[in-house]
UniProtKB/TrEMBL annotation:
GO biological process, one term: protein secretion by the type II secretion system
Gene Ontology CC terms: plasma membrane
Alphabetical list of PANTHER family matching this protein: GENERAL SECRETION PATHWAY PROTEIN, TYPE II SECRETION SYSTEM PROTEIN F-RELATED
Record protein name field: Type II secretion system F domain protein
Amino acid sequence: MQYNYKAINGTGNSVNGFIEATSPYEAQEKLASQGYIPQKVSPAKSSSFSSLNGVEERLNLMLSTVKTPELILFTKQFRTLFNAGINITNLLQILEEQTENLKLKKAAAAIGQDIQGGISLSEAFVKHPRIFSNLYCSMIQAGEDSGRLGEVLDRLVYLLQHEHKVRSDIKSATRYPKIVLVAMFIAFLFLLTFILPQFIEIFEQAGVALPLPTRINIALYELILGYWPVLVTGSALAFVGLQMYLKTSTGQYHKDWLFLKLPLVGSVFQKGAMARFANIFSILQASGVSVLNTLSVLSGTIGNAAISREFAKIQDQLREGRGISTPLKSAKYFTPMVINMVAVGEESGNLDEMLSEISSHYDDEVDFAVKRMADNLGPVLIALLAVLVGFFAASVFLPMWDLAKTI
């Protein structure tokens, strides 16, 4: 049953809200365990209007999503309020009032209640994995444990902003190629199913020997015409099966491994992983987190399953007493620059500073790689379009040329 309550929180402010309980006594006990002093507890009204409002609120909560810009704004506000010296409980109440996104608003309220109940800030964030990623929670924990939460929030905001910019740049760079590829596919199907059959009838009546490009297109036309239900069903099942496979650890590994090997885009993913590796490593090292624990965090936050597997091998070698630079040399995907600069930082005792230099360098490298990918995709698409148009034109004009010679 739901109860409406009025209570005094830990800072002496009056708050109102709803709580689930089996009795008014249990509701008061729950409020007291969360650090509230209950003043009034009464059963929530169950009128049809309030019920409809409750259904609408739950529906909005279920359908709403937290977009990256909203999360960045939330984190910026968190950082600003924290650096202003506002205590966490009041800070979260302010965030709850200021945040427009319903899920973030509910999360801020829940985190505030959990903290008043006695758990740590990072533990409260971990309870909302659909909003706050493993990386986000790990960074909060590192800042909390080291007493440098303000600095960590600064770096977290930068990391979220830069990665959002990179993702946006990649989407912008690939938007035009996607449109062109879809248009090419539709145009080819149209030519194959509506234009080519008219020429086939002319060629067959004239008894012209058909060249290879024409025979290939005719075979494709007959395949589509005769087996389109099978092709559509098979394609749909293959798509669903592929999506299910990619959700497995093996499928994720193979997908990420393939992306690293692809021309044009492979360097973007590798450099992006190096930038994230150096960013997270430098933050956690500066916060006093051990190298082994840092690698455990990186294994779940690097964003690439193929590279993530390498961290397990690196950890095994670290447990044998080796430094971080030696295992990196035998690991896949790490660039020579990362390996050498980590070795220098390890020897000089300035590993966190050297990692900051690496992250700054690769942040710029990622931006450059994305621009280069966008510049190179245009000529590749033009070449692909030329091959497709040339192949179809050859399948039509070669037999027409032979037909003209017989007249």
